[in-house]
Each structure stands twice: as C-alpha cells, then as structure tokens.
C-alpha cells in the first residue's frame, strides 16, 4: 500500500483535509466539545496509516504542503485583533498582566510536574514551550536541547485539550468577561484554542490572537530562566 500511495503526490494532503472535513461535520452534528475537528482528523489519519501499513515518511512527504499554509493562516489572526484595536488600547494593562500570568503559570506547572514525575533536564525543557505556537516552540526546544518532536506533540495535545475544555472551565469559574476569556485561552492553548475563542465571539478571538504572539515572546524569555531550575 505504501508503494501505491507514494506515487500520488498529494495523498497526505488529501487524507488530512478529508479527515478534518469529517471532523467538522461530526462537530456540527453532535455539538460535543470532544468532537474537536483536529483531534478527529489526527485519529483518522493514525488509524488509516496503521490499518494500511503506510509509513509515516510516505504520508509526511505528501502532507507537508499543508504546513506551508501555517504562516499565512497565523498572520490572518491579526484581522480580528485590528478590529478590536481600540479595546486593546483601553485594557492594555489588564491584557499584559493576564498574558504574563498565563505564561508564568505554565512555566511553574511544568516545573512542578517535572519534579513530581522525576523528569531529567532534557525532558523538562521539552515541555516548557508546550502552550505557544509551534513555530516559536520548536526553536525554543531545539535551542535548549529538548526533544523537538515531543514538544510538537505536546503542543498539539495542549491545544486540543484547551479547545475542548475552554467553555466548561469558563462556565465553572464564572468567567464572563470576553477579554479575560480570550487572553486565558490564547495564552494556554495557542492557535488551536484560538479557533475555539473565535467561535465564542469576536472579542474573545481577537484577544486570543494577541495572546498567541505575546505569550510566544514571553515564553522565549521565561523559558531561558526556568530551564535553570532543574
């Protein structure tokens, strides 16, 4: 099967897009948070490759073209932010404080869990950038000699979990302020969480988009400090 699909230049891209489309349809029909389109598509792709004994390298060779769209898609997140520029100026102090708090909490949580589970230094720094966008996190993990592939996996898992539980957490803790919701989701669950924030409202989406950029910059600074703690 690997030999057959390797001749199809866009096999991986087609499989990924069809899987994601199925995830969207399931989410639209059942309205359950667990039916996250990204999570569904990952499960489908993994199952397909396993059942038909297709090597990951074969899949990735034809799926990598989708990655080229990551940068322009991230840049597009600036559009809702621009629309809420006045709101950004008005609440700049609260936004900065919220983002810094989110990044600091992530760092402390990773440190505590590393101590509890007895992780070594390389394993510890691998998870420090788990809550920021992949492009920045990979650079941080590589610079600190972490396991880059595990960093990417942790980023995906973090984003999916954040997207699934975001509304529930806000409801449990009675968080109703759109700015607070957006900053919390963006600083904890990066771009995947931001898609959920956009579903919740334009302000939430704009603030979450802002948190992606600011959290990434703050993590670059904080990670270099926290990496010395273990």
Outline the structure in words.
The structure is a single chain. The protein is mainly α and 230 residues long. It has two domains: 68 residues, no CATH class; 152 residues, no CATH class. Helix content is 79%, strand content 0%. The chain has 13 helices and no strands. The longest helix is centred in the middle third of the chain and has 25 residues.
Topology of helices and strands:
Layout: H1 2-6, H2 11-30, H3 37-51, H4 56-63, H5 70-75, H6 78-83, H7 85-90, H8 92-116, H9 121-127, H10 134-143, H11 148-172, H12 178-200, H13 202-226
Helix pairs in contact: 2-3, 2-4, 8-12, 8-13, 10-11, 11-12, 12-13
Number of strands: 0
Q: What is the helix tally?
A: 13
Could you give the order of the helices and strands?
HHHHHHHHHHHHH
Largest sheet: none
Portion in beta strands: under 5%
The shape, in one word, is globular
pLDDT below 50 for ≥5 consecutive residues: which ranges? none
Radius of gyration: 19 Å
Portion in helices: over 70%
State the secondary-structure class.
mainly alpha
Distance between the termini: 46 Å
- Count of the domains: 2
Mean pLDDT: 85
């Amino acid at each position: 099967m690997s030999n057959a699909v390797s001749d199809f230049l866009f096999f991986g891209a087609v499989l990924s897009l069809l899987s994601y489309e199925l995830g969207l349809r399931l989410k639209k029909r059942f309205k359950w948070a667990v039916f996250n389109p990204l999570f569904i598509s990952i499960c489908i792709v993994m199952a397909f490759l396993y059942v038909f004994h297709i090597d990951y390298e074969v899949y990735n060779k034809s799926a990598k073209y989708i990655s080229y769209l990551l940068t322009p898609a991230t840049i597009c997140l600036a559009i809702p932010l621009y629309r809420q520029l006045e709101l950004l100026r008005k609440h700049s102090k609260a936004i900065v404080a919220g983002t810094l708090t989110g990044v600091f909490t992530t760092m402390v949580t990773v440190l505590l869990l590393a101590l509890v589970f007895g992780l070594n230094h390389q394993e510890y720094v691998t998870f420090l950038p788990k809550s920021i966008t992949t492009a920045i996190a990979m650079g941080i993990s590589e610079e600190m000699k972490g396991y880059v592939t595990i960093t990417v996996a942790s980023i995906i898992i973090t984003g999916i979990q954040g997207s699934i539980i975001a509304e529930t957490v806000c409801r449990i803790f009675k968080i109703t302020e759109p700015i607070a919701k957006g900053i919390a989701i963006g600083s904890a669950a990066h771009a995947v969480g931001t898609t959920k924030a956009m579903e919740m409202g334009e302000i939430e989406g704009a603030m979450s988009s802002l948190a992606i950029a600011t959290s990434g910059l703050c993590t670059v600074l904080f990670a270099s400090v926290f990496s010395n703690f273990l």
